[in-house]
Design brief:
- The protein has 255 residues and is of the alpha+beta class.
- Helices cover 45% and strands 23% of the residues.
- The longest helix has 88 residues.
- It is rod-shaped, with a radius of gyration of 64 Å.
- The N and C termini lie far apart (175 Å).
Length: 255
């Protein structure tokens, strides 16, 4: 009896193991059945084994993974492009602000240049006017006495004007210049020469005492002699480039 029970137990275990084996086989053996309805009206049956199904599943999984990676990469690229676009937009705004500032600065500088140009032009005109006035002031056109005087004919080879003034008046410089010498000669006690710096020199011969000294800068109308009872006569000459010329060609009688 005991042997029979043992045999039954063994049979049960063997049956259990076989059932488990069958279940494992069934678990891994899936078959896909396809039915094709042909034009002839016959039904054809096609089967796809588990290996093919697993391969297709793996391929699908790989495709899904690839698509996921691609979507992630594309998402990153889109974000990067958005970031670049935003950066460029910010840069454009910044450049527009800089351009606006530069336009304002250019207008400001243009105004300053205009003002400076006007100032320079005015300065140039003033300097030119001053130079012209100085040039005119150095032309010996003034009358060499502080009052009217009688004119006498002068003797000699060199052109000279003889003027007779009245006591109490003065012999004056006919233009601005520098006293370059005070000498004597056989006809007059003193001879004053003034260089006007433009090629002209004026010469004043009189018996009175010189009121200036060599090296003095004088202006038109500066007193050279005071006319007294003994020195009423003035011998007046002008040279240009060391050549004597007729003083009457320059003297402005009204001046």
């Amino acid at each position: 009896m005991q042997n029979q029970d043992t045999t039954n137990v063994e049979n049960v275990e063997e049956t259990t193991q076989q059932n488990a084996k069958v279940k494992r086989q069934r678990k891994h053996n899936y078959t896909l059945m396809l039915f094709v309805d042909s034009k002839e009206g016959r039904i054809r049956q096609m089967g796809i084994g588990p290996t093919v199904i697993e391969s297709v599943a793996v391929v699908c999984l790989v495709i899904l993974l690839a698509l996921s990676v691609l979507c992630a990469v594309r998402g990153n690229q889109v974000e990067e492009l958005q970031r670049i676009n935003q950066s460029q937009a910010d840069r454009i705004v910044e450049l527009e602000e800089v351009n606006t500032d530069l336009i304002a600065l250019r207008e400001e500088l243009t105004d300053k240049v205009t003002i400076l140009s006007d100032t320079i032009n005015q300065k140039v005109e003033e300097e030119e006017a001053l130079e012209e006035a100085q040039a005119q002031a150095r032309m010996p056109v003034g009358f060499p006495m502080s009052s009217s005087a009688s004119l006498e004919e002068a003797d000699g080879d060199e052109p000279m004007v003889k003027l007779n003034g009245t006591e109490g008046n003065s012999v004056i410089a006919s233009a601005d210049g520098t006293v370059i010498s005070i000498t004597t000669d056989t006809s007059y006690l003193h001879c004053i020469k003034i260089d006007h710096g433009n090629g002209y020199m004026s010469i004043y011969r009189n018996d009175g005492d010189a009121m200036v000294k060599e090296g003095d800068e004088v202006v038109r109308g500066a007193i050279l002699y005071v006319i007294g009872e003994e020195n009423t006569e003035l011998g007046y000459q002008i040279t240009y480039d060391d050549k004597y010329m007729d003083p009457m060609e320059l003297i402005n009688i009204d001046g």
